[in-house]
Structures are given as C-alpha cells and as structure tokens.
Anti-sigma factor antagonist
Amino acid sequence: MKLTARSLGPLCVVDVAERRIDAAIAIAFKDAMRDLSDGSSGDVVLNLAQVDFIDSSGLGAIVAAMKHLGPNRRLRLVALGPAVEKVFRLTRMDSVFAIHATLDAALADHGG
C-alpha cells in the first residue's frame, strides 16, 4: 500500500500511489489512512489521481477512513478519474463526500 501524506496549510493531503483500491488492499488502505490521519488535526484530502479502479471493498475502506476522522473533520476527495467518479456517483457517495476536480479547488473550498 503506497500512501504518502504532506501538510498543505491546515490540510493533510494523502496521495494514493496505487492504480486500484480493491478487496486485495482495502484493509491495508484503511490501516494506512488511520495512521496518516492520526498525525494531523485538520481535514484530510485524499488525492485519487492515480487510482483507475475502485470496488465496493475500496469504497468501504474510504468510508471507514472518513468515519475515523470523527464529526469535526472532513475527508475531501480530489482528482477522481472517470471510472472512480462513476462508482461514487452510482452509489450516491458523491453526496456524502466533498469531491473536487483539483487540489487547488479543495484548498479554495476550505478557505485556504
């Protein structure tokens, strides 16, 4: 599982360096997200630019990461490819997450 985190103003940006978030890596993804997000206190931006495929297990892992942040922090998603965006739209998870086309758009929405 290849995730890297960096601070960008008040946000913790997590870059996913995987092509797939599926059943094979969902647990490792969830654990890595927990470890990375515990090191910050602000909102978390999940950069999915390199992800081409997500299945229900991957979606569940992203939802678990969001729930782990608690009620005072948000998980924002950026740079969803067409196939990944379709999964979020079909499952109506696009109404649960703040989804932005770019990192700059997420920063602007956050006020930073």
